[in-house]
Amino acid sequence: MGARPLSPHLGIYRFMYTMVASFAHRATGVALAAGLIVLAWWLTALANGETSYLTALGWLVTWPVKVLLFGLLAAFLYHLANGVRHLAWDADYGFEKRQARRSAWLVLGVVVIAVAVFGYLLFCPQAQQP
Question: Domain boundaries in the chain?
Fold first, then answer.
């Protein structure tokens, strides 16, 4: 038996934006599921009292964790925006190639703007002052 590629094989497909959007949607879903561990840890610390919460807060304000939280924010916003795109598909709208490509770029643009705005509001100290 000769070595044949498995079907469908990535080598036979042309690279398309919609492929990247689909892969990114799945990857952000996995990242958000992993991010639930951080949320559960924070909520557990909150429920365990002030000492536990202050310990968790000490970790959550470090720059590596802030980078992780910023990544989770970006993943959430992308997954949300692309989920709306999928809802449009469920309503039988946007399946044409041109519409699918346009909506993929629209999702990316919305996410970049939303990440910039929410990132600034959440992580910049001067934005949090009354």
Answer: 16-125
Token pair 């992308």 in the structure block, residue: 78
Which residues have C-beta within 8 Å of that of residue 80, sequence separation ≥ 6? none
pLDDT (tens digit, 0 to 9) for every residue of the chain, 130 residues total? 567 666 666 666 777 777 888 899 999 999 999 999 999 999 999 999 999 999 999 999 898 998 999 999 999 999 999 999 999 999 989 888 899 889 999 999 999 999 999 988 887 877 666 6
- List the CATH code of the domain at 16-125: 1.20.1300.10
**pTM exceeds 0.70:** yes
How far is it, in rounded angstroms, from Cα 109 to Cα 95?
19
Q: Where are the alpha helices (DSSP H) in 3-96?
A: 17-47, 50-60, 63-90
Write out the two tokens for 90: 């469920």
- Torsion region of 94: left, alpha or beta (phi above 0 gives left; psi -120 to 50 gives alpha): left
Whether 117 and 70 have beta carbons less than 8 Å apart is answered as no
